[in-house]
Amino acid sequence: MCPCVHACMFTGAMEVVELARKLQEEATCSICLDYFTDPVMTACGHNFCRACIQLSWEEAQGKKRRRKRKGSFPCPECREMSLQKSLRPNRLLTKVAEMARQHPGLEKRDLCQEHQEPLKLFCQEDRSPICVVCRESREHQLHRVLPVEEAVQGYKLKLEENMEYLREKITRMGKLQAREEQSLAKWQGKVKERRERILLEFEKMNLYLAEEEQRLLWALEREEEETTSRLQDSVAYLDQQGHSLELLLLQLEERSTQGPLQMLQDMKEPLSRKNNASVQCPEVALPARPRTVCRVPGQIEVLRGFLEEVVPDPSSAYPYLLLYEGRQRCYLGSPPEEHGFCTKDRFVAYPCAVGQATFSSGRHYWEVGLNLTGDALWALGVCRDDVSRKDRVTKCPENGFWVVQLSKGTKYLPAMSTPTPTPVMLREPPSHMGVFLDFEAGEVSFYSVSDGSHLHTYSQATFLGPLQPFFCLGAPKSGQMVISTVTMWVKE
């Protein structure tokens, strides 16, 4: 473009700006420094907003000494006196003010707030537009300034670069968001699939457990029928023998009431019948307990959800009950010669120990390995924390013990208060036993970990105090118990 043309365009633009500035000055009230609102003209020819001039005259109303005549007030511009009733609306100025408000080049922000001059320059140090008066002030005199048009072009390029950068970031953010939303949808789909699988597997397991339950109940029913049938046959046979004996008794009683000669006639026959009469009891092999074992598939795995690391307390152990901690590779407690036999917490009547943990609520499960020899005597379960540790007492619930103990051979019986407890019969001694305590339910249950079979359950309304795991070995050469990482045996 020709420099002359560019200069003419710039000059024309400047004239437009200057014209707009003058129009703005004409449309601005000298009192409120804002565009006129309902402008009125005084007798001297100056214009003000009606509200502004009325407020100015009301403020001057109290200054009586300055008032020259009643109802007249000084003009804020020239101080000439004017009558209030002489105010005339200036409709032309109203239109000019409205045009100034709507003109984009006449916004107040385009004028310097301090000097009311157009903001034609840009201070690079302060990064703000200034007017030509500001440029000559001390504040900006040493600063580098540019015409607004040049500053706009430079900053417009920078803004374009920033906007392009932000557009790229937004695009990338959109892609990341879409990817995350896709990942979320996939994850929710996987969770839905897993939820359906859990429901399906539990449904299948419930069906399997129901079938296994029916199978065990059916086996138990068959066992009941077989044994009941044999016992009923035995009862019927004995009933038949009893009936024959009662009939013979009646015949003998009738013979004994006859006369002497009648009674003595043919005595050989009734006497021979008496000699031939015998009571034969059929031998029915009756097991102590039903052969059908209560075994719930997966029960041990469920119980292991409550598994805890139970460790015997050395301070409670019988003086000659040795505890070896395999993880630390050391004996727990002091040698037997150094044990205090009269300590409050120590068992001194038999080789026993309790766990370090005390339970007064919740569900707890622990397992004990049994490496026993022959008919070794032992007991395993829980006891109250205040049981007698100085005297030999029967290990039964009345004395605060809920245990399963060895009787002889393969008979493992619960410690009960009845004189003849029903033994828990096992085909083989267990090598791994689990103990489950449900404190709130008042139950202590025992399981064979190797095959998952249920051995015995104590059930009562509530426990009257805190409980501790209980371990007991009967005598030397009984073998070993393994509780968590601790091995326990009796010193010879």
From TrEMBL:
Gene3D superfamilies given in the database record: 2.60.120.920, Classic Zinc Finger, Zinc/RING finger domain, C3HC4 (zinc finger)
Top-level taxon of the source organism: Eukaryota
B30.2/SPRY domain mapped to chain residues: 290-490
EC number: 2.3.2.27
Any one GO biological process: regulation of protein localization
GO cellular component annotations of the record: cytoplasm; nucleus
InterPro entries linked to this entry: B30.2/SPRY, B30.2/SPRY_sf, Butyrophylin_SPRY, ConA-like_dom_sf, PRY, SPRY_dom, TRIM/RBCC, TRIM17_PRY/SPRY
Positions of the B box-type domain: 107-148
Location within or outside the cell: Cytoplasm; Nucleus
SUPFAM superfamilies: B-box zinc-binding domain, Concanavalin A-like lectins/glucanases, RING/U-box
Domain RING-type residues, every copy: 29-79
Keyword Flavoprotein belongs to the record: no
Residue ranges crossing the lipid bilayer per the database entry: none
Reactions catalysed: S-ubiquitinyl-[E2 ubiquitin-conjugating enzyme]-L-cysteine + [acceptor protein]-L-lysine = [E2 ubiquitin-conjugating enzyme]-L-cysteine + N(6)-ubiquitinyl-[acceptor protein]-L-lysine
Pathways per UniProt: Protein modification; protein ubiquitination
Keywords: Acetylation, Antiviral defense, Autophagy, Coiled coil, Cytoplasm, Immunity, Innate immunity, Metal-binding, Nucleus, Transferase, Ubl conjugation, Ubl conjugation pathway, Zinc, Zinc-finger
UniProt-recorded name of the protein: E3 ubiquitin-protein ligase TRIM11
